Amino acid sequence: MQIQVKYFAFFRERLGRSSDQIVLPESATVSDLLDYLHTNWPQLANGLKSSQVSVNLEFVRPETRLSEGDEVALIPPVSGGKPENLFKITKDSIVAQDVIDPIQSDNAGAVITFLGTVRNNTHGRATSYLEYEAYAPMAEKKMAEVAGEVREKWGIERVAMIHRIGKLEIGEVSVAVGVASPHRKDGFEACKYAMDRLKQIVPIWKREVWTDGEEEWVKPDPVYFDTKPNDD
Questions:
Q1: Are residues 169 and 110 located together in one domain of the fold?
Q2: pLDDT for residue 100 is more than 50
């Protein structure tokens, strides 16, 4: 099938043209198109990571199926604007502002945050430190899926999640979740839901190292294949 791809701003300047006619397999998705663009024009790689895509004047997700004659537009980030979501695995220290800044909005009456920190014991057993490991690309993808569930249940568009990996000392922040909502009740519920789902379906593991020298790998709430938690 043949589709039209329109380029703006960064993309237009890098390619030196405003559109292309591109031929893709009949079953191709938006994700397949982005892979095609990345392979054929690697100079677009950085922009593709942070851009949005519209098909026939509507924003779409990567899994959206394309059809013959579709008009696809690559939408670069707007200069000076803030992202509405953030899903990140990092080795850097985390502070609350890391999940507040990306989601703050004039129409948000509540910005709810949760910080998970390393405590000094587990069930009374003294902890020396924790180590976290993640399958980062899948983890960030699953975080985005959790945000989609939040949007479906509460209509909340602005969600941020960051999880740290590596060695963490007592008191350091391991995970941060932020939700911006018009109303605080929905915000509190959505933030709790997002954290619970992160523990269930995001592939992150921790190694607990106790002061007596023993250690154990732990994966909290291993419910990888369920649909969604009950509302009760």
A1: yes
A2: yes
